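pls design
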């Protein structure tokens, strides 16, 4: 009996595995912490394009289907604390000269 009990009146919504894999791929491609210097965040080659794709997926998939699948995947992938905050701190430290 490994089934999770769902309270009466609540539906379980499962995220499509293809959507989950694509969103996780975008988050991974944003960048990450360098292996040699673990406290330094390194942007991926196409970080700006990844951010634009994430924004597009939030609008097109979540709003169109009236579901929060992409937002849920972004939360599971720890996008805010794991990627966006380090990216913003890099941008701030570099003098905000670049997009």
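designed seq:
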């Amino acid at each position: 009996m490994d089934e999770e009990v769902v309270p009466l009146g609540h539906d379980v919504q499962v995220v499509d595995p293809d959507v989950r894999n694509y969103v996780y791929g975008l988050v991974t491609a944003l960048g990450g912490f360098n292996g040699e210097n673990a406290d330094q965040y390194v942007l991926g080659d196409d970080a700006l394009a990844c951010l634009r794709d994430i924004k597009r997926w939030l609008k097109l998939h979540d709003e169109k289907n009236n579901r929060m699948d992409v937002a849920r995947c972004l939360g599971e992938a720890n996008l805010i604390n794991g990627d966006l905050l380090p990216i913003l701190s890099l941008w701030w430290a570099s003098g905000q000269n670049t997009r």
